Amino acid sequence: MNENTHDVVIVGGGAAGLSAGLVLARARRRIAILDGGAPRNAPAAHMHGFLSRDGMPPAALLEAGRAELARYGVEPIAARVDDITREDGPDLAFTVRLTGGATLRTRRVLVATGLRDDLPELPGLRERWGKDVLHCPYCHGYEVRDRPIGVLATGPMAVHQTLLIRQWSPDVTLFSHDQEISPDDRERLAAHGITLAEGQVKRIVADEDGLQGVEMADGSVVERGALLVQSTMIPNDALLTGLGCAREDGLVPTDGMGRTAVPGVSAAGNVVNAHAQVIMAAAEGSAAAMALNADLVEEDVQRAVDRDRVTARRAAGFDAAVEALITETVLGDRRHGL
Ligand SMILES: Cc1cc2nc3c(=O)[nH]c(=O)nc-3n(C[C@H](O)[C@H](O)[C@H](O)COP(=O)(O)OP(=O)(O)OC[C@H]3O[C@@H](n4cnc5c(N)ncnc54)[C@H](O)[C@@H]3O)c2cc1C
C-alpha cells in the first residue's frame, strides 16, 4: 500500500459515521470522513432519547462530534461520494470517487449514508415534517403529550402506531386515508379509546402557530395538534449495492459488527437499519469501527508473517548455495590432490 492509502474511508458524517471516525482516529488509523451534510433529522429542532444529550439540537450533536474528532486531527470533508470500486490486484483496496472527480484510495470502506424519508404527497405535510408532523413517538411523542394527536394511515403498520401513540395522549384519531382498516382492528382501536376518521385526507391545515388540523376530502377539518406519519424509508445504499452487496427484505444485511457480505465493506446506521435512532446509529458506527480495526490488524500481521517467511526462505536458500559452493571447492581440492 502506498503512503496515500487510507486505512478506512467513511462515507457519511452523521451519528454513525462520526462515531466510527472517533473510534478509528483513537485507534491511530489513517481515515477520511466524507459527508454530504444532509442528516435525516435536520428538520427537527431537538433530538430526544439520547442519554446525556436529550433535547439537544441535532446539529449541535454533530458539531460536538466533529470537535471531538478534531482533537485527533480528523476533520470531516464536505463532499459527496459518487461511487466506490474494488481495485484489481492482490491487496484488498478500493477507489472512492467524489463528485467533481477527485479520488481517494483506501483499504476498507464504511458506508454510513443514512436513509431518505419519502412522504405522502399531501399539501402542507412536508412543511410541517419534523415539527408537528412526526415520524416516531419515541423521539417526539413526549413533546406533544396530552394534545389531540392524529395518525395518517400510510401502510400496514398504521394501527400499531396508533395504538402506540395512545400511550402519550388520551385524544387520538386514526385517519384511514387510503388504507383498509379490518373489523378486528376497528374493535381494538375503539377498545383503546381511539377515534377513526374514515375517508381520504385532502390536506394538512397549518398557520404560523403550527399544525391546526387535517382537512378531509369533504372539506371538514378535524382539529389536531400533531400528526404521526410513517414515511417510506429508502436506504441511501447505492454505494453498497454498487460494490456487490445484495439487499434482503429491502436492506443490505450486516452482521452484528457492521460487516456486509463483501470483504472490506462495512455499513452502519440508518443505511442498513431503518429503525436505528441516533444513539443506536452511533453505537453501530462504533462497533463497525472496532471490527474494521481488528480486521486491519489481522491483515497487517498476516503480511508481516508472509514477509518474514519469504526472508527466512531466501536466507535458507542463500545458506544452501554457500554450502554447495564450499563442498564443490573442497571436492575440487581433493580431486587435485591438494
Ligand atoms: C424528522 C426526524 C426527527 C428525528 N428525531 C430523532 C430524535 O429525536 N431522536 C433520535 O434518536 N432519532 C431521531 N430521528 C432519527 C435520526 O434521524 C436517525 O437515527 C439518524 O439520523 C441516523 O444516523 P445516520 O448516521 O445513520 O444517518 P444520517 O444522520 O442521516 O447521516 C447520514 C449522512 O450521510 C451523508 N450522505 C449520504 N449519502 C452520501 C454520499 N453519497 N456521500 C457523502 N455523504 C453522504 C448525508 O448527507 C448525511 O450527512 C429523527 C428522524 C427524523 C426524520
Keywords summarizing the entry:
single chain; 338 residues; alpha/beta; FAD/NAD(P)-binding domain; 2 domains; 7-stranded mixed β-sheet; 5-stranded parallel β-sheet; elongated; binds flavin-adenine dinucleotide
Largest sheet: 7 strands, mixed
* Total count of helical runs of at least 4 residues: 8
Care to count the β-strands? 17
The rounded Rg comes to 29 Å
Unreliable spans: none
By CATH's scheme, which homologous superfamily of the largest domain applies?
A: FAD/NAD(P)-binding domain
The percentage helix is 25-40%
Taking the alpha carbons of the first and last residues, their distance comes to: 55 Å
Classified by CATH, the class of the largest domain is Alpha Beta
Describe the structure.
- With 338 residues, the chain is of the alpha/beta class.
- The protein folds into 2 domains: 6-117 and 233-302, FAD/NAD(P)-binding domain (3-Layer(bba) Sandwich), CATH 3.50.50.60; 120-229, 3-Layer(bba) Sandwich (FAD/NAD(P)-binding domain).
- It has helices at residues 15-26, 58-70, 125-128, 137-140, 158-165, 183-191, 238-242, 278-335; strands at 6-11, 31-35, 77-78, 81-86, 94-98, 103-111, 115-118, 133-134, 149-152, 172-175, 195-197, 201-207, 210-216, 221-223, 226-229, 232-235, 265-267.
- The chain is elongated, with a radius of gyration of 29 Å.
- The model has no long low-confidence stretch (mean pLDDT 95).
- The structure holds flavin-adenine dinucleotide.
- Flavin-adenine dinucleotide binds at residues 11-17, 34-41, 43-44, 47-50, 80-81, 112-114, 117, 130, 135, 139, 236, 269-270, 276-279, 281.
